[in-house]
Amino acid sequence: MATPFITAVGRRKTAIVSIRMSVAPKSSILVNGKNVKDYFKTNERANIAEEALTKAESAEHYAIIAHAEGGGVAAQADALRHAISRAIVKAEPNTRKVLKAAQFLKRDPRAKERKKPGLKKARKAPQWSKR
């Protein structure tokens, strides 16, 4: 017997989102107990989070419960999209090609570069004076 839900983890920078996805008559996304539109204040962030569902054109509707921690809201939205994409591929393997082409299955490797000694930031040097 298959489990009643599918789990997946998405990451971006220092944000980590773990989700539980199950088939439901009406789709809904809850992030840390709040609706996705309420958790991500702007429509842009909420749309990024839901983008995987619209791109996959899933015939089935899914209820998604997400736990997000770390990072900022932008990174959490991207991490949620990553997690949802991974879960959809587990549920419907034929959507992999579409999601892979949209680069939703690839973890974005960009992260903040560390500060180096003798510099003010990662690459910014103190002002140079000839005399």
TrEMBL record:
PROSITE patterns: RIBOSOMAL_S9. One of its GO terms (molecular function) is RNA binding. Residues 103-131 are annotated as: Disordered. Pfam families: Ribosomal_S9. One of its GO terms (cellular component) is small ribosomal subunit. The keyword RNA-binding does not apply. The keyword Ribosomal protein applies. NCBIfam families: PRK00132.1. This is 30S ribosomal protein S9. It comes from Candidatus Kaiserbacteria bacterium CG08_land_8_20_14_0_20_50_21.
